[in-house]
DNA sequence: TTCACTAGTTCCGAAAAAAAGAACTATTGA
DNA sequence: TCAATAGTTCTTTTTTTCGGAACTAGTGAA
C-alpha cells in the first residue's frame, strides 16, 4: 500500500479544487469534513456510508479530494482521519472555499 | 438546428457551476466573457481560437457553460453573442462567481 | 435567385475518466 | 494466530469527453 499523496500548496490549482468539488458526493464529504467555519473535524469513510456508495468508489472520491489539496488524510489505527486544509488554501485563494461552502450549504438547505 | 438551451435559475446547481468552471479552457472562456467586475462583454468562438482547439470541442465547451447557467448565448447574425449571467447567479449564490474568478485570475497572473 | 463564405452545431467513432465488484493489505483485538 | 474492520488496488464495465467530418444557418456578393 503506497503512502497517500498530498500536494504542496503550489501544486494546487483552482481547476483542481473546482473539479474535486463539482461532484455531489465529494462536496457533501468535504462540507462535512470542513465542518462549521472551516474548523478541522474528522471523518472516516463510514460517516458517509448511509448512501450505499460502494467503498471502492468512496475511496476514489477521497483520493481526488486529497490530491486536489482539499483534505489531508492520515491513518489513525485502523481507520482514516481526514482534515480539511482550509487555512492553507485560504491563504492561497482567499475566500474561495468559504464562498463554495456557503453556496453549497444554502442549496442543501432548500431540499 | 435545435434552439439553445438555457436553464432557469432554479435549475442551476452549485455542482453544475463548479463542473463547468473546472476545465481550464472553460474558465478561461468564462473569465473572458464575464470581463472585469462581471460586466457583460461578448465573445465568439473565434476569440479563443488562438489555442488550436477544434471547433467541435469549443462548441461543446460553450454548450456546457450555457447549460450550467453561466452564460447566455444568442445568435447575432452569423455569429454568436455570449453574455455572462452574473447578476442572476449572484442573486442565487452571492459571492460565488466573484470568488472563483478572483482565484482564477490570481492564479493566471502567476504564469 | 444561386453561390460561396463564415460561424457554429451535430454526428459518430476513438480515447479518457469514473463507477463498482472482487481480491488484497494493514491494523487492532480477541 | 485468527478473525474482524477499514480502506486500497485491480480489473472490467459504463459514462464522458475529444475531435474529425458532414451538416445548417445567416450574409453578402454576382
Structure description:
2 copies of one chain form a homodimer. The first copy, chain A, is built from 5 helices and 2 strands. With 111 residues, chain A is mainly α. In chain A, helix 1 (14-21) packs antiparallel against helix 3 (55-68). The longest helix of chain A is centred in the middle third of the chain and has 14 residues, at 55-68. The N and C termini of chain A lie far apart (40 Å). Chain A binds chain B through residues 13-15, 18-19, 21-24, 27, 93-96, 98-100, 102-104, 106-107, and chain B through 13-16, 18-19, 21-24, 27, 93-96, 98-100, 102-104, 106-107. The structure holds a DNA duplex (30 and 30 nucleotides).
Question: Which stretches of chain A are low in confidence, meaning pLDDT under 50 for 5 or more residues running?
Answer: none
Q: Identify the overall geometry of chain A.
A: globular
H and E string of chain A: HHHEEHH
Class based on secondary structure composition and strand pairing of chain A? mainly alpha
Provide the β-strand percentage band of chain A: 5-15%
Number of strands of chain A: 2
Helical element count of chain A? 5
Largest sheet of chain A: 2 strands, antiparallel
Order of strands across the widest beta sheet of chain A?
1-2
The radius of gyration computed from the alpha-carbon positions of chain A, rounded to a whole number of angstroms, is 13 Å
Identify the quaternary structure here: homodimer
| Percent in helix of chain A | 40-55%
**First-last Cα distance of chain A:** 40 Å
List keywords for this structure.
homodimer, about 110 residues, mainly alpha, two-stranded antiparallel sheet, 5 helices, about 50% helix, globular, DNA-binding
